[in-house]
Amino acid sequence: MQWRQAGRGATIGVLAAGMLAVSATAAFADIVRGNNGPAVRCVQHVVHSYNGISVGSSGEDGDFGGNTERAVKTYQGRKGIGVDGRVGPITGHVMFQDVQNLHQLAHHTGDTDLFTDTGRWLSTCPGASSVFQ
Fold this sequence. Notes:
Radius of gyration: 15 Å
Order of helices and strands: HHHHH
Number of helices: 5
């Protein structure tokens, strides 16, 4: 589903003590080229669905390849933050703020589809990676 652009432009389950260290390490890692999974899909959704930046012909597939890296760089450039193609705490926080702002806008304008979609992102993505705070 494509959205119009607005404006310009973890719980960690512990089964064993060793698992906590592995989970915490993964949770605090930047999201970068070569990664895959839900956190990547969250990144792709922000840059593609909410900002209209292509993530490649495969779409929001959860694989952080060259097209997603280029899309993240474009997003970072538009937002005036460091352009490195990595989603770390700064880029992740900007993404989180963008989605929160869109969620509020959707609420005020009565856009129920966007409100539902951004609400889903806000309830899922911060748990997928700690960079979304």
